[in-house]
Amino acid sequence: FRQIVYANPKCLELFRFSHLDKIVGLRPGEAFNCINAFKTDGGCGTTLFCSTCDAIKAVLQAQQGRKSVQECRISTKNEDNEAKALDLRVTATPQIFDDELYTIFSLVDISDEKRRRILEKIFFHDITNTAGAINGLAEIMNDTQSMEELEAFGLGEMLSTVSNRLLDEIQAQRQLMAAENGELTVDAEYFYTETFMQDLVNIYKSHPVADDKNLIIDKSIENVLLMADRAILGRVIGNMVKNALEACSPDETVTIGCQKLSNSMQFWVHNPKHMPKRIQLQIFQRSFSTKGHGRGLGTYSMKLLSENFLQGRISFESSAEDGTTFIGVYPIKWSNPE
After folding, report:
1. CATH of region 9-109
2. C-alpha to C-alpha distances, 200 to 104, 183, 203, nearest whole angstrom
């Protein structure tokens, strides 16, 4: 049945239960306040999302008499209804007591360990590659005989573009860490949506992920005066664009657009690829990535920044016939919660 029959004081403290009676009878996801545990009347373990949950997998293996150690990602909400993510290492051990089979379920928060791995990947791979490109351009400039040659080859502009990309990669990680720690400050300002979208296209058309691919703005785009934090919103929609370009094959097209919905603005990014169901069920989880081990903050950061700092919401649609569209909806005028 997977219901909790006992929890130690540390577990009660971690999940903010005042007394053992409050947690007994709950399933793990319900105790964690997993966002998927309350989507059906059946509770934890009964939704499609639960089919990808390694915590459930560990318990089920223990109930078959085998000890199991798994890593799992759980998305929760705190008391203020803000998104929060847990990376856990769970151990489920079968135990016979009075001829009854129980499961000893222990967990360790490995969020810091996961973040360290991701940051190592970013700094030792992505940022190192960008720094290497800067170094290569600098060496070419040293070998150039005159300013006329520099201008003819556009080396100064290329160096500026690559160095800005390096700074952007560092700022993205700084911004995400501040968001997770609740230290990110929202600086709302007025700007027009069409200019905002055109700026994104200009940025990502020159990005390596856009090589041999097309990035266009849909003709139906609506130009609306929006009040929001332009930098944070740019990070969210920019991640949508980058992910879409990475998903595409050469000569395929990513299309972006926006339209007014009553008092909200809807932004969307479409690419022709279809996401398999197993990926769709995990797409916004922290540390989950389709790009391999040691990646996985892009879609998670989109959801975190949208829900906790932009008063918005993120969703997606994906099918073999229509491809994949990520959608962000935000109020036309940001309201100060204070």
Report:
1. 3.30.450
2. 50, 26, 5
